[in-house]
Amino acid sequence: MNTGFSLAPLFRHSVGFDRFDELLDAALRADQSNGYPPYDIIRESDGRYRIVMAVAGFGRDDLEITVQENELRIRGSLPPQNDGERTWLHQGIARRAFERTFKLADHVEVDGAGLNDGLLTVTLNRVVPEEKKPRVIPVDGEQSPTNRN
């Protein structure tokens, strides 16, 4: 990755972010895409998110949403139209196939999706398992069994 800046200060205080460089590179490449279809990412509250995508002209059957590991993929494809009897004077609504991919953080799950007024809304929720939540470790007066002589 050639970004022109150093990530070394981040890695001095981080452990286990081996794929961070790869994730940042993918984000920079994706940001240079054509921007179709436009979308918003909204944080509603701590741990709750929405992706809202403008998909004018697409119906429920034309959209496919898949989640695999930490990747959300939204695809749209329209069946071919028979324009034999139609003459377009202006065709400003983009009706072309698309694919958008979003990297999800650990423990982020897709709650559902809806299509209303040409907007596809995907709701996401961070569900942290109990064993991954912070816990307080008490310090007692005894040595641990492995350190006893």
Summarize it:
The chain has two helices and seven strands.
Largest sheet: 4 strands, antiparallel
Poorly predicted residue ranges: none
The fold-level CATH name of the domain at 36-81 and 93-131 is Immunoglobulin-like
> What shape does the CA trace take?
elongated
Strand order in the largest sheet: 1-2-7-6
> How many E strands?
7
Secondary-structure content class: mainly beta
Question: Any idea what the radius of gyration is?
Answer: 23 Å
**Number of helical segments with 4 or more residues:** 2
Estimate the helix proportion, in percent.
10-25%
Approximate strand percentage: 25-35%
Summed over residues and divided by their number, the pLDDT gives a mean of 81
Please give the CATH architecture of the domain at 36-81 and 93-131.
Sandwich
The CATH class of the domain at 36-81 and 93-131 is identified as Mainly Beta
H-E order: HHEEEEEEE
State the end-to-end distance.
Answer: 51 Å
Structure description:
The chain has 149 residues and is mainly beta. Helix content is 11%, strand content 33%. The protein has a four-stranded antiparallel beta sheet, with no helix packed on it. β6 and β7 (119-126) form a beta hairpin. The longest helix has 12 residues, at 20-31. The model has no long low-confidence stretch (mean pLDDT 81).
